[in-house]
Prior knowledge:
Helix content: 55-70%
Number of domains: 1
Radius of gyration: 17 Å
Shape: globular
Strand content: under 5%
Structural class: mainly alpha
Largest sheet: none
Order of helices and strands: HHHHHHHHHHH
Number of helices: 11
Number of strands: 0
Amino acid sequence: MGKLYKEEFKSVDELILKLQKHRHWRKIDKEIARDIFNQLYKNSKYIPEIAELEIDDMERIREFLIVSEEYGLVKNNFTKLAQSEVDLGLLSMFAVTLERLGASISKGYPYRHLSDDKLKSLMGMAELSYQSSILCDKYLLPSYYGVIFCSCVFLDLDRAITWKAQFNNAVKSLNSIDDSLLNYYQHSIKQDKGSINEINIMIDEKINRLKAQLK
């Protein structure tokens, strides 16, 4: 069977039916998969511009599928994580995997040996990785810096500022939520105030540098 993201689906129920026909996705228990994609659909409101663009309601999930399938995360990571007996928060583990992928793709920027088109395509996938990470867990704060880094690569100041606001909202929400409602990863991030402050500084530096560049 081909890539799941290339198929037509207009709801989570339709997606789950198609998922059962795919070699790697079907290794994930059907009800676990349903929980995963229902949560991703719910989380899509955390991704800026979804309303303004008037895109398909399932588009953010499709973007998650694109980066997950193109980079082998389903086969090599997600199926194993879904079967793990250690409960650290499944979607948070997905989020960490996607954030690491985004970091791996973007760490070599500006990839001087690549043409402009190939560079844009590569950094576009890095941006999708970070964005899909946030789709899985809005409290994975390093991914916000990743999206903003990519926005600055594309000289998109408005998008960078929008994501900065999303980062601030996520930090505020994380600090206000009861610790008992957080999983292992989320709790670790909340407790590491130094890293949160460092990410905030890095974001501001990136945005200020882009502002100066665009003057």
